[in-house]
Design a protein that fits this description.
Elements: H1 2-9, H2 13-16, E1 20-22, E2 28-31, H3 34-53, H4 56-62, E3 63-69, H5 77-88, H6 94-101, E4 103-105, H7 106-117, H8 120-128, E5 131-138, E6 141-151, E7 163-172, E8 175-184
Parallel strand pairs: 3-8
Antiparallel strand pairs: 1-2, 2-5, 3-4, 5-6, 6-7, 7-8
Helix pairs in contact: 3-8
Length: about 180
């Protein structure tokens, strides 16, 4: 997985296309084909438009039942305080975050997290930054990962490595549904 992001971050993907990595879990990755890229780009623009407008009805059609989002667990002061309190009291361990809190129900994600994540600056970056489309198959299900360079290397200070956001969409009968948001690093 890290190899993919390393290659993508340096634009090396064009030198090794078509490029596939088979993982021990039985999943594999590859750069999206031109035809796949057109379809997923349309969906991606539709998703960004819905997030920018905070169109809750359209977002409900584009988001799975829940979204795996680690940074959503503590993206408000109240949430951060709750998690800190649970950790301090010994009632929450890192493994609990992945089992109990990391899956954010769609309605909560749309009402609470979308406004925080998809602010004006983020929307601008998502529309204008370098974007890569990765096809992924896990246990027979098809996914697309959209990897967006949201912070360029050196943007904040010399030596800063930059950063990317990864948006994972699962193919369903009704189209692609957001299932996961993560960051690199």
């Amino acid at each position: 997985m890290k190899l993919i992001f390393f290659l993508l971050s340096f634009g090396i993907y064009s030198a090794v296309f078509p490029f596939m990595i088979i993982c021990s879990s039985g999943s594999f990755y590859r750069i999206a084909s031109s035809e796949e890229k057109k379809d997923i780009e349309k969906m991606w623009v539709r998703f960004i438009d819905a997030a920018e407008k905070k169109d809750q009805n359209l977002l409900k059609m584009l988001i799975d039942d829940s979204v795996l989002c680690y940074f959503c667990i503590e993206n408000t002061r109240a949430e951060a305080d709750e998690v800190a309190s649970l950790r301090n009291d010994g009632r929450l361990f890192e493994s609990d975050l992945y089992e109990k809190k990391i899956r954010i129900p769609a309605d909560h994600f749309i009402s609470e997290d979308v406004p925080l994540i998809f602010n004006r600056d983020m929307i601008y970056r998502l529309r204008n930054a370098k974007t890569h489309y990765i096809f992924r198959k896990i246990s027979g299900e098809k996914y697309f990962e959209i990897i967006v360079t949201t912070t360029e290397p050196g943007e904040f200070h010399p030596g800063h490595e930059g950063g990317q956001h990864v948006f994972q969409f699962r193919q369903s009968e009704s189209g692609y549904l957001l299932t996961d948001i993560s960051t690199i690093p």
